[in-house]
Amino acid sequence: MAGRFAPRTARDTARAALPHQAAAPARRTAPAAPEGPPLTREWTPPGPLDLRLVLGPLRRGPADPTFRMVADGTFWRATRTPEGPGTLRLAARGERIEAAAWGPGADWLLAGVPALLGADDAPEAFVPRHRLLALTRHRRPGLRLLRTGLVMESLIPSVLEQKVTTDEAYRAWRHLVRRFGTPAPGPTAELGLHVMPDPRGWAMIPSWEWHRANVDAKRSSTILRAVRVARRLEEAATMDLPEALTRLQLIPGIGPWTSAETLQRSNGAPDAVTVGDLHLPGIVGHALADNRDADDEEMLALLTPYEGQRHRATRLILLSGRTPERRAPRMTPGNIVNL
């Protein structure tokens, strides 16, 4: 698999992924030492912005070691940038967004704040064809689709979520990041923030640790295949959606569900609709056609009027609260010891 790809540096990938960065330098208030004063910047969004709605898709469970929302309304994000580990703190102050960052990746993170918070998104392109979606959009004017410019940080937890309950996937993510990641730069000790491993770190995880995290061989093997060509997968962040989907799905074990879930976050792709999901077709069918038994084919048919904006349409449906009542028991968590 690795032989299909020519090598490319992580720095080159980052600069290609976020071409706007050169126009938005960070204001340096102090050296970006991991434990020293942060770099800071302010940014004014082009319209209403709800940080909780925008950043919510990055949170992998209530105890995600890479993401925190604290009581004072600030959001903390620890990630591995092409320049190294970094921690980003975001807070809304009236119409402005205040950002601070620590670590080797601080400049990269601050330069990417506008894209992260949906500056490249075009919510006005969405034309609601259903009253439910029109009302939800009106009630949620601060919804914008984020764009991280980072593929692997969304791809790996999406692989962990394949064919298991969300609780199982979240536990696996917590265990692996805390065990093999690194403490996040900056004043994050009380928050317990960690940065996920780099590709080599993922590749070095022993088989028994995947087992301890309750990750079966199929998912762990998919992750190991992906990290071997991580640099080329990161290039998908600059591609149009069809090409990006194709690039990710070159890896055995990465299909339409996983690639869509990844590109929704890394690329801010408004049309990356999730197919193959256990619940989403029934939710869309219930909301748009009062059919909770809809399958992927019917879901896509119902979303046809929103071609180009189907991911945004499903986000609005999920935010509307119009979801069918559960009528079957929850999926029973598995245990790979017994498989």
UniProtKB/TrEMBL annotation:
Molecular-function annotations in GO: alkylated DNA binding; DNA-3-methyladenine glycosylase activity; DNA-7-methylguanine glycosylase activity
Biased composition, class Low complexity, residue ranges: 15-33
GO biological process terms, semicolon-separated: base-excision repair, AP site formation; DNA alkylation repair
Region (Disordered): 1-46
Keywords: DNA damage, DNA repair
Gene Ontology CC entries for this record: cytoplasm; protein-DNA complex
Name of the protein in question: 3-methyladenine DNA glycosylase
Lineage, top ranks: Bacteria, Bacillati, Actinomycetota, Actinomycetes, Kitasatosporales
